[in-house]
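Record pair follows.
FIRST:
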Amino acid sequence: MTRDTKTVDLARVRERLTATIDPLFDNIPLPDKLQRLTAAALDAVPGVDGYGVCVFDGDNLAVQASSGELMDRLHDVQERLGEGPCWETLHGDSASAVYEDIVATGSGEVTTYREAAGRAGVRSQVSVRIQPRKRALGALTVISTTTPYAPVQAESLVLIGNLVGLAVDQATLRGGIDEGLRGRTVIGAAVGILMERFDMDDDAALSYLKRQSSTTHRKIRDVAEEIVAERRGS
């Protein structure tokens, strides 16, 4: 049974998040959002000496935010060894993993994650799966170099992980919206060119684009981009 009995002061976390929540939903890169979110939530938590967020990009898992080089190294070690708290949350049955009483052992080649973490000065570590709406997006990890007991209860870290997941979801949604807007913009430009070129109304111009899309087996946006490119090159 874990000796992890500490909980996060959620009221204090909420106060810190309130000061940064608006910028998180601005159109800024996802790593910046995650960095600001995890810093706001975890910088003031006693015993937390490092944190990291790794997120899936297709089949690849990459660190998108971290407190420093140590977290990046620990992530690389887990990927290389195929074990460790973060690895377990993403490839095992449990959505969280707690490592306590980590000590530095041995002096030769590292063969286990505990050995690597101990030699790096880590005393305890907690990782939780980031999975809004039950869809695994990545993992959130915290470490302590000062206490052998987990600095944050896994259940509390899950709440923060859910906020991180919302930020990832929002960034993904925003990317889709932006892509859709760009598509509509180029289609609108192509419709205008066709109206001028063939003296037709907008409905007829759009119908022309759809026919070209169907007969050439291409997306309507691709057809529109070609028409716009031709105008720019003329």
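SECOND:
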Amino acid sequence: MDKALLEVKGLSKRYGDNAVVRDVSFAIAPGECLGVIGPNGAGKTTTIRMCLGLTAPDAGSIRYFHDAARAALQMPRDALAIKAQLGVVSQFDSLDPDFSCAENLLVYGRYFGMRDAAIRARIGELLDYAALSHRAGVKPGELSGGMRRRLSLARALVNDPRLLLLDEPTTGLDPQARHLMWERLQLLLQQGKSILLTTHFMDEAERLCNSLLVLDHGSSIAEGRPRELIAHHLEPDVVEVYGLGALALAEDAAHAPLRALAARIEVSGETVFFYTEHARPLMDLLADLPHLRTLHRPANLEDLFLKLTGRQIREDA
């Protein structure tokens, strides 16, 4: 890809007999948000770590900031030059608990060789961006989880990076804090920043990402724009049915005419999911079963995720 900020080709990593990442390739263009989704153990964090030079790949190439004017930088060969242009927010809080919010930004800027005057000129803007101007002198331990995540994001911007690598940046946040983080990330995209995002939240991926890479067991199993992936892999309508007796809809012969109206049926817990091209006839039959509760909705990214990777719970790898 011309002018790719990050281009990964054939990336692979094994630990003993366990292939954690298998021949993964992707690219991120300027101004794009690429989401990497997949179950626990799919290889998302290992992929990020290799892109950051924290884990050595067994095979493949990682090239940054390629354009016609200059050759691409390669990881790990050009790690320092690459990291000077990156912003990183990891899964786990790495803020210094002994420094205030403003001091965390100041100290972090020094890691990039920035002069104190240049960093201090950015601190007010960054704290305002993170909605933390009123907490400049407060230490991270006195902040809520959402505030700490916003401070981590502000810190990742101190060097004005071209590309942000965000590993599950909203995990553990309540809905209000998550929505505020989404707003802040949308602002960055509007400003022309590029983002590589791993997430377990399908609504987050659908809101923020121009394109998606779906990983499972270390391999890429789908890639494309969210709505295009949904249209390609799923029926347009989903009818969820739950309540006492719902499971019988998927099993009893008496409900065969109902099942015949669905292209595909899945059962999860006490809920039956009917995937269909035409929901109205199915809803009309369900109206004769008032003891059941129904929800008719369009297919979404969570449906895609579950179809491609399954509904079975995965333990952390």
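COMMENT: The first helix runs from residue 44 to 51.
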